[in-house]
Write the structure tokens for this entry.
Amino acid sequence: MNSTNPPDRTRLPKPPWLKRKIPSGETYQRLRTLLKNGGLHTVCEEACCPNLGECFSRGTATFLILGDKCTRNCRFCAVSHGYPDPPDPLEPQRVADAVKAMDLKYVVITSVTRDDLADGGAHIFAQTILALRKQVPETEVEVLIPDFQGDDEALKKVMDARPDILNHNVETVPRLYAKVRPAAVYERSIRLLRRAGDLYPAVSTKSGLMLGLGESDEEVRRTLQDLVGARCTMLTLGQYLQPSGGHLPVVRFVPPDEFDRWKEISLRMGFAEVASGPFVRSSYHARELYRALREDCPAVNSQSSVRQGKEHGT
């Protein structure tokens, strides 16, 4: 008798444009070893990102701080959920040491959601940014933060550490929140992005959506309008992929030409830079997106120069 599980016939078959090579290569293996030895996590591995092989082979990664257990259980996310360990006060320095060892010029720092902590872990975000500024002052820093349950003081802790990019994903359209991310509040996320711009207008804000969960074109348009209204300058649009049979199924695979169309629409609506495609994730080609923003927006480039000048004491 065959004991193997039958194929999941409820899943849509993946189209040919959603193919990725198995990760390999010397740089990929070196990075995995470095992360393991440093006791560090990446969202690339925890969230089963389809770009893991490409990014690791290029020597880039998105660091996942505050442990690998999330206090929420969003139905789209592959990160483990449960009760996490207390924050490690040495983690910020370990991240900075790893970034220096990897010689990264651009780094993304994200975290699990820590609703068990009074400030949602904002102090660890801030300490990680400060450790990076001290250890690798030339490295540009993007943070991809949770909503901190709408706590303005927690957000201010992160913003006061002056990241180059403040990223917070709305993930999907408001109608689908109850099904996709039931512990989150759409309006709270929009307010967070607007508030970040109020605190430090020179720090660019960024957000992203997954497509293919059953949203309509009009719902996507309205969500993009809300983000523009919150003065969000950068946008990522990517295809939702079902991590396992226990997660939400893919309703539709969006073809590449539709992602191209959404990029054109988004730029016309007022976003300064947009990455849109089936494999795009919030930190995919993040450095290239930020560099394009700096080239297109002199104020952003000027702010970066001022920050680096202060760090070098000039």
The chain has one domain: 26-311. The two ends are 74 Å apart (CA to CA).
